[in-house]
Amino acid sequence: MENKNNSDYENVKTQVEQLSMELEEAKNTLLQQEYEAGIAELSVGVLHNIGNTLTPSKIAVSMLLQRLDKSPLRNHLRKILQPLEIAIPDCPLAEDEKQKLLKIIKVLPDGLEEEYAQNISDVENIRDKQEHIASIIALHMRYSHLKADLCDVNISRIIDDAISMQSESIKRRNIEVVKEIAEVPYLKIQESKLLQVLVNLLKNAYEAIDANPQSDKHILLKAYVEKQNVIITIKDSGLGFDPAMKARFFDFGYTSKKDGSGFGLHFCASFLTSIGGEIKATSVGEGKGAQFTIVLPV
Prior knowledge:
The protein is of the alpha+beta class and 298 residues long. It contains eight helices and seven strands. The strands form two sheets. The chain has a five-stranded mixed β-sheet, covered by helices on one side. Strands 1-3 form a two-stranded antiparallel ribbon.
């Protein structure tokens, strides 16, 4: 009888310990969700403030472009100087002084036009950067407002959005991005998290190219259907890796970069595993680039 009581006690104790563990895991999950929600809310506020600050500067740049384009000095200087050019030969000046004045009159409008053209080009470049920042803010705002619910996701569009978010970093490095996107079905998935996966992998790709001076600087993105799965691959011409590194790629905290957090690839793997997908990394070897393959169940 005593053995039975001991056995019952041990069973109850085991069940209580199991329930305690499950409650602790549930609590940690809720805390993480609250933390992520707080970060998302903070990010939305920061983005909103940046957008508000950007608007008046965009207006100022637009007005500056108009003033430069319609400047009376730029548009009418040559015409204004024509009477002076005609009058100089009859002026009581030495011949060499007359020639200097005539040369100035001929050169001045061209020099001013060239300077104005350069200024307009610089201001237009600033305007383009502002538009790029505004588009990035708009994308982040849109994705930050998405609920965690599943929704039908256009894979081609989300790849374009990920590239757009990283376009400035890619352009600055003169990296060629090539897309080969086949017709793939919409997927019911958490859109903002899939976007984060793609952004993380693109960032890893161009940073790997930075680390490989011999690289011809290109990134190839593909999307296609294979065996009831949507496959997305991101292949870069970066540093690559050896098999020993691959074994720890998706471990939390592991990074091969000096300033890396070790969270990006771990997040990618965790999210994809949670939806029944997976991520794989392949490389021929160091200095020969790498490919990350995302497998998403249809």
